[in-house]
Amino acid sequence: MGQTGRFVVFLSVVLGVWTGFHAYAFQRFLSVPALARLVPSGARWPLALLLWLSYPLGRALAHRFAWGRAVEWAGAAWMGLLFLAVAALLAADAVTGFGRLWPAAALPARTSALAVAAVLSVAALVQGVLPPRVVEYEVRVAQLPADRATLRVVQLSDLHLGTLLGARWLERRVAEVKALDPDLLLVTGDLVDGSVAEVRPLVPILRRLEAPLGVWGVTGNHEFYAGLERSLELFADAGIRTLRDGWAEAAPGLVLSGVDDLTARRQLGLDGRALDAAFRGIPEGSLVLFLSHSPLRSREAASLGARVMFSGHTHGGQIWPFTYLAAIAYPLQAGRYGVDGMDLFVSRGTGTWGPRMRLFRRSEIVVVTLVRETPPGRPGGPDA
Question: Which of these ranges, 303-307, 327-331, 375-379, has the smallest mean pLDDT?
Fold first, then answer.
């Protein structure tokens, strides 16, 4: 199957799930008499269609009209509310056997589920607009550039810049990064959300991102969706040096290796031996930091010589309990993991995709400080 065919299958699955969510939630909503009375029978199909169209319609309008961004925001918020409603209603149906095993409890259970979904949605909207928290880690490594005892690495991931996250939001993130004083700045994909044209006016702000050892990045799946070549031009104009199935020395002995997004490549049938190319020819004894938007093939990266790996993509599930669904495809979902002697850091994302919502876990900026590990018996070591 070609790239177009694979993408059509992927889109069909997404639309099928989207439609199924609406059908299930509406049926359960209308099964509650007090709620059903709020929607006249003649308005039910038009309302269902309007809500089904709300997010894609908002995306289309936001690119053409200023007021379209409000429509997009509302459609995105509906997406989050719908997911929480479906999750809560499924839990209620599981308790009552879908109303068959415990019929008397079906109505109060569904009413309570919708109330819980509404409360959680408000909490998620509040948490979604809070600034990212700074999450700090320390890694002890044997190899560091000779003139450094420590190396401070800041990771931004999944900014999803566009119509919902724009100039004012980005300026605040740039100020936060500057305050963290990184030696090295990494951008691990999904800088773009939807349209490169919407992000291009933000290039002057992006160019303010600086670090002594440079600003480096890799593409995410949304760069593929927005148009890979246009996205790569944007990265270059923004001063982000992009690693594409290859490597470069940021300093003597410090190698950065990176791949184009593995998830998008798998969806489009482009996967191949990306990691082999990304590690081929790296000088022996180098400290290798590996960048991959999706936290996949981490064991392979460790076996090829990566000491630290930086990823994102999962958003940590973004809206609980989507966390559990995302973990099926990405079991290494958020935080720090040890993988065969390699440290893997999976960012929950600095921005949000779709709804400006987060539930239980905020967005984050990751800071990893690499510290030279002195072997035992040498000055500064445990035996000194």
Answer: 375-379
Cβ atoms within 10 A of the Cβ of 175, count? 10
Residue 255 has pLDDT above 80, yes or no: yes
**What dotted CATH number matches 133-372?**
3.60.21.10
Q: What's the confidence (pLDDT) of residue 194? A: 84
How deeply is 383 buried, as exposed, middle or buried, from its count of CB atoms within 10 A (0-12, 13-18, 19+)? exposed
User: Which pTM does this prediction carry?
Assistant: 0.92
| 3 state SS of 260 | coil
Q: What is the 3-state secondary structure (H, E, C) of 299-354?
A: HHHHHCCCCEEEECCCHHHCECCHHHHHHHHCCCCCEEEEECCEEEEECCCCCCCC
Instruction: Give every strand in the sheet of 308-311, ordered side by side.
Output: 246-251, 254-258, 287-291, 308-311, 342-346, 335-339
Chain CA centroid to CA 353, Å: 7
Question: Nearest-CA neighbor of 192 among 233, 154, 153, 137?
Answer: 233
Tokens representing residue 287 in the block = 């400290």
Residue 1: the pLDDT is: 61
In the chain, which segments carry CATH 3.60.21.10? 133-372
3-class state of residue 38 by DSSP: coil
> Pick from 239, 246, 253, 245: which is nearest to 211 by CA?
239
* Apex 331 CA angle, 124 and 159, nearest 5: 45
pLDDT band at 381 (very low <50, low <70, confident <90, very high): very low
Cα–Cα dist 36/27, whole Å: 10
Summarised one tens digit per residue, pLDDT across range 203-250 is: 999 999 999 999 999 999 999 999 999 999 999 999 999 999 999 999
Alpha helices, DSSP H, located in the chain: 3-30, 33-36, 44-62, 68-96, 103-128, 167-180, 196-199, 203-206, 221-226, 228-237, 262-267, 274-279, 298-303, 322-329
- If you average pLDDT over residues 83-91, what whole number do you get? 97
Tell me the mean pLDDT in the region 66-95: 95
Q: Is 253 left (phi over 0), alpha (psi -120 to 50) or beta?
A: left
